[in-house]
Write a structure and sequence with these properties.
The chain is mainly beta and 413 residues long. Helix content is 6%, strand content 51%. The protein has a domain at 229-413: Pectate Lyase C-like (3 Solenoid). The structure holds 2-acetamido-2-deoxy-beta-D-glucopyranose (NAG) (8 copies). Keywords: Cell wall biogenesis/degradation, Glycoprotein, Glycosidase, Hydrolase, Secreted, Signal.
């Protein structure tokens, strides 16, 4: 027997607005609240109510239309739930609210607007779901400043297991588009992200995704334009497989940053593949960045990487952004392969690799790496320092790479 009850989501709404949350059995269907008295409605409470009633062994459907999200949504213990999103979610412009209330996610004191955890969760957008972070407001008020405390990540998976996310579009994300933390067996496919500032201020840190303390993450068929790292594998990530991704205006395929933790906690990254990645007009393409901290990177493959006008396609550093302790780092980088890396570098540097003298890199190899400087006439340079087994690596080293080599260049070297 079907049990139908209708929960008026916002009793306080003047004029008795029609109910927007329809609960039928274990299926909760949410339709956007109408505007009332010229004021923007807030759909976050009725969405939270839907998850309260249907977030375990159920289904939550967000219908077509525009949902206004005015509050943080913290959904930590979902289980066996299918989430269908057919409409747009637009996060409110109340920057002061978000700065005070975004949910902390431990990593580097970052925080998020929406956190999802639990197990056996699918979130499907059918190519129709649109997440609009109204990021331009964030980019403009940040005025190109560095990471702002409280500036929220759009969506965080947190202690989540067996999750499938598919067919969602993001525009103008507030901060990172997604973050995968303390999670395992996460599949994220067919996602389209674009956060591009239309003012003089750059977006600053609108990464496509970052994985951290997570394992078995599968990413496939994404298009990302973001102004910062496209796909970044951070500390304690194991078995991360990324394929068929096109990154624009980004750091593209990134391991790191690593080795910069409070109390010198180690960062381990193991078993990562990036395959069939195109990096267009990007800062770097297939790179590993660590601070001079603790941990290890082991078994990384960058294959079928296409660079199109990339500032410095292959880059490895043991002292990112600081040039401090470059040769004292205790974070060895081992067994990294670059296979079929082709395309164009903006200047005459195809690869710059500076490993720590105290923890040299080992097991590096190049196979069919062919990068041509954009000007069509410079000879590409491959700079190498502290690589064990360099002679057998296949890296056509043309010189040494100084410790303080920059992440981005502004001309031939
Ligand atoms: C609630 O959903 C059920 C199942 O889809 C539908 O039959 C019913 O008409 C809906 N009720 C309202 C008030 O929309
Ligand atoms: C991993 O998650 C997927 C959903 O994306 C699920 O179908 C699959 O059964 C999970 N695998 C395991 C081993 O639980
Ligand atoms: C890749 O994802 C896009 C959405 O970003 C979608 O339109 C396209 O159909 C997907 N391609 C495949 C092969 O599934
Ligand atoms: C991303 O958005 C900007 C601004 O709207 C646009 O110029 C650019 O072409 C978009 N990128 C892609 C890959 O569509
Ligand atoms: C590589 O990825 C692109 C999407 O960026 C896709 O269109 C293309 O089919 C993929 N190529 C292979 C060989 O899978
Ligand atoms: C990574 O995992 C190790 C244990 O394997 C732990 O000691 C360390 O604190 C973790 N690092 C971070 C940054 O969480
Ligand atoms: C390296 O990582 C890949 C991708 O995660 C995995 O399939 C492979 O088994 C790993 N190789 C070794 C030697 O551990
Ligand atoms: C490298 O490219 C060649 C030629 O296109 C292809 O046959 C080979 O499978 C590629 N290697 C990998 C590891 O994808």
């Amino acid at each position: 027997m079907m049990l139908t009850s209708i929960i008026p989501a916002l009793l306080a709404l003047a004029g008795g607005a029609s109910a927007a949350l329809n609960v039928t059995g274990s299926t909760c269907t949410v339709t956007p609240l109408p505007a009332s008295g010229g004021r923007e409605p807030d759909d976050s409470q009725q969405i939270l109510d839907a998850f309260k009633q249907c977030g375990k062994n159920g289904k939550v459907i967000l219908e077509e239309g525009l949902f206004h999200i005015g509050k943080v949504m913290d959904l930590k213990d979902l289980s066996n739930v299918d989430i269908e999103i057919h409409g747009t979610l637009r996060w409110s412009s109340d920057i002061q609210y978000w700065l005070r209330n975004s949910i902390g996610v431990e990593y580097a004191q970052r925080s998020t607007a929406w956190r999802i955890g639990g197990q056996d969760i699918s979130i499907r957008g059918f190519g129709k779901a649109l997440f609009d972070g109204q990021g331009q407001l964030w980019y403009d008020q940040n005025r190109g400043g560095s990471n702002q405390a409280g500036r929220p990540i759009s969506l965080t998976l947190w202690h989540a297991k067996n999750v499938f996310i598919d067919g969602i579009t993001w525009r103008q994300s507030q901060f990172w588009h997604t973050f995968v933390a303390y999670s395992e067996n996460i599949t994220m496919t067919n996602l389209d992200m674009n956060s591009t500032s239309n003012s003089q201020w750059s977006t600053v840190n609108t990464d496509g995704t970052d994985t951290w303390n997570s394992k078995d993450v599968f990413i496939k068929n994404w298009t990302v334009t973001c102004g910062d790292d496209c796909i970044a594998i951070k500390g304690n990530s194991t078995n991360i497989q990324v394929s068929d991704v096109h990154c624009y205006e980004s750091g593209c395929a990134t391991i790191g940053s690593l080795g910069n933790n409070p109390g010198n906690a180690p960062d381990y990254v193991q078993d990562v593949t990036f395959d069939n990645i195109t990096c267009t007009h990007s800062s770097n393409a297939a790179w590993v960045k660590t601070y001079s901290g603790n941990g290890r990177v082991r078994n990384v493959t960058f294959s079928n990487i296409r660079a199109e006008n990339v500032n410095q396609p292959i880059y490895v550093t043991s002292c990112i952004y600081t040039a401090r302790g470059c040769d004292q780092s205790r974070l060895p980088i081992q067994d990294v392969r670059w296979i079929n890396v082709t395309g164009t570098s903006r200047y005459n540097i195809a690869a710059a690799i500076h490993c720590s003298a105290s923890s040299p890199c080992s097991g590096f190899s190049f196979e069919n790496v062919e990068i041509t400087p954009l000007d069509g006439k410079s000879t590409p340079k491959y700079l190498c320092s502290n690589i064990q087994g360099q002679a057998e690596s296949g890296i056509p080293c043309t010189g040494t790479c100084p410790a303080d080599w920059p992440q981005q260049l502004n001309g031939n070297r």
